[in-house]
Amino acid sequence: MVIDSPPLATLAPQTGGRVTLPVRGMTCASCVSRVERALSKVPGVARASVNLATERADVTFDPARATRPTLVAAIQGAGYEVAEDTHRLDIDGMTCTSCVNRVEKALTRVPGVLAAVVNLATNAASVRATGVEPAALIAAVEAAGYGARLHRAVDRPRPGADARAPLAAIILATPLVLHMIAQVMGLPFSLPGWVEFALTLPIQFGLGWRFYRAGFAAVRAATGNMDLLVALGTTTAFVYSTHLLLERGITHHGHFYFEASAVVIALVLLGRWLEARARHSTTEAVRSLMALRPEVARVERDEGEIEVAVAEVVVGDRIVVRPGERIPVDGVVADGRSAVDESIITGESMPVEKTCGSNVVGGSINGTGLLRLTTTAAGQDTRLAQIIRLVEEAQAGKAPIQRLVDRVSAVFVPVVLAVAALALTGHLVAGSDFGVALLSAIAVMVIACPCALGLATPTAVMVGMGRAARLGVLIRDIEALEVLHRVRAVVFDKTGTLTLGKPVLGEIVPAKDGDVGEILALAAAAQSGSEHPLAQAVLAAAKERDIAVPRLEAFQALTGRGLEATVAGQRITLGSRRLMDEIGADATALESDAARLAGAGHSVMWLARAAKVLGLLSAVDPVRPGAAPAMAELRALGIRSIIMSGDNRRTAEAVARTIGADTVEAERLPDEKAGAVTALRGQGVVAMVGDGINDAPALAAANVGIAMGSGTDVAMQTAGITLLRPDPALVPLAIALSRATYRKIWQNLFWAFFFNVVAIPVAALGWLTPVIAGGAMALSSVTVVVSALLLKYSRLRPRGVA
């Protein structure tokens, strides 16, 4: 179960016209009065009592006049929020989209449920509710004829489907198949009727009982599903064959239709086993992430190092990780030095050097050094656990196209039953034997396959999202995946997104007879103690080159121009060209160099001693290695790239020239970025890529927001997609994967619809036996799932792009 807000363990049962709602945002008795008045004004409310301590509103109302949504709306209208929980359930017994629809309806009927989404591929339900106990949701699912239990992210994945049932059915049905072949080919082999009956009986009412159980549940719910079609079809064949057996005698060796029942059930069971195995493969990405979590951690206690279960580790614990071991928790390196392989989590191929103060992520692999970590997050709070949870939630969602499929599937079974009845009637009217007419009707019921329709979309989405997670792209919601494949323009923030966001020293250009080492030493001394990014670049360069930095004696900042300092008794001025003019320093000799560096996007700093220019220094924010390839790939995909920055135009244009971006919009404030993105949406679907708090408005304004993994929590919460490593080249990769996923969805839907549109009429005309129909139906579901699995191997990079 995933809970977005504090658990509501003490909520009262939701019965009749009384409900308890968790209210957030109340701070005083005035708030209590305001909420009570708002609820009392709702027509049908008899009593409303609000408790500030428990943050609950107990409401008694007439269900015929007031509903839970109207009560929630009243609280929200008063300026408060009703807390929502998100519950995840594992569902057992679903076989097709009709089952999905029935479970969704059962869940949404539970008082307090706001929305329920059921996914056939994952056999999971995601339920948004207010004040609903999980037990009520489980009871609703069980009343609909299915099994349910709370989903636990810490659970290991369930094993694949049991092969014993289809194997037993095939063994029992094989003699019947041989008997049928011998009858058709005139071979001297036949079975007496009682043997056929004895072989079919355990298949029909033993191995096939699951179809009756699910079919009965569908009838009780006044709906239909694939199990009902299989149960009706095979039962009809079995009953008719039994009638012929009793009529002809149990020792008769003639042709009955027991194989139509037994073989169809065997093939359907085999098809479901193959389908379950294939569907199990679609969850490979999440299972591989789960496998990254070690079972135990080595913790330092008073008695020394001891091994404890990872679940027992708490924040603040000191963890010891030996060379080659997997890191069990998120933490900060307290002692030691090592290179850590984070590739399985971030996709970064090279190990990352970790020293004291470095952050490490649980699930990554320690290199050759011994590390001691201070735990910052454990259990379900680790980054790995959050990634698993987000991927599972996104995979459990329902793509917009799937809702259309659900509407079609809702009427699928009644239409198939009507076609079967017409086939039976039509053959009898045409003068066909009753057995032939009955087999045609059975073939119609057996070959109809709502499973393929139900699996076409979710299996492709699961494989696509799983592959994205492996590549370092975390898709937080399924609608972002749907929108991403239609993107026509991508807007990039510059600093921290396309560049490292950390300036480094570029060039030092000395004046005539100047000394590079002296210039760097004086500039570093003048800026010692400053936290400004340009000052940090100079200080880092001095440290790297082992430059002895003189003592700073006095310092004065000159707003917007630079600074003046006294270093070792010398008056040092560092700043803009304008500042050089103010102190009367002649800077003409270096103007061409300054212009060259500024044109390349460098920030230029002039250094003078007294009134004499010693030289100039430049700092530059390096472009990320993946920025230029990202622009080339976007262009190959037919997508326009736009840099939108708050930096000056000259710097932004220099970066654009370096990486090959199409358009530059510079000197934009955060609210201006959002407005510009909104204007771009009028020209097509727009994605926004950013990393900072100032990017959050633009990320929200775009059709789809993409946050860099190195960015702030605000940016990542606003975006629908997060890049797990700060690499702009992941953007075109994510778009290409989205396009490939949606191509696969349409391929699967075409196959599923085409199969049913063609196969059902062919069966109705009597051109298919129930045995062939059963095999074709099983094959259609397996084909759709296998087709989705091929998405794992599809080419994502445009041809011609390295």
Label this structure with key terms:
802 residues; alpha+beta; seven-stranded mixed β-sheet; six-stranded antiparallel β-sheet; 29 helices; elongated
Describe this structure in words.
The protein has 802 residues and is of the alpha+beta class. The chain is 47% helix and 20% strand. It contains 29 helices and 30 strands. The strands form 7 sheets. Strands 18-30-29-28-19-26-27 form a 7-stranded mixed sheet, sandwiched between helices. Strands 20-25-24-23-22-21 form a 6-stranded antiparallel sheet. Strands 2-3-1-4 form a 4-stranded antiparallel sheet, covered by helices on one side. A hairpin with a 4-residue loop joins strand 6 (113-119) and strand 7. The chain starts with 17 loop residues before the first strand and ends in a 13-residue tail after the last helix. The relative contact order is 0.09. The model is unreliable at 1-16 and 154-160 (pLDDT under 50).
Q: How many strand segments?
A: 30
Strand arrangement in the largest pleated sheet: 18-30-29-28-19-26-27
Major beta-sheet overview: 7 strands, mixed
Number of helices: 29
Mean pLDDT: 81
User: Termini separation (Å)?
Assistant: 43 Å
Rounded to an integer in angstroms, the radius of gyration calculated over CA atoms is 34 Å
- How helical, in percent, are the residues? 40-55%
Q: Which structural class is indicated by helix and strand composition?
A: alpha+beta
Q: Name the beta content range.
A: 15-25%
Identify low-pLDDT runs: 1-16, 154-160
Write down the overall geometry. Answer: elongated
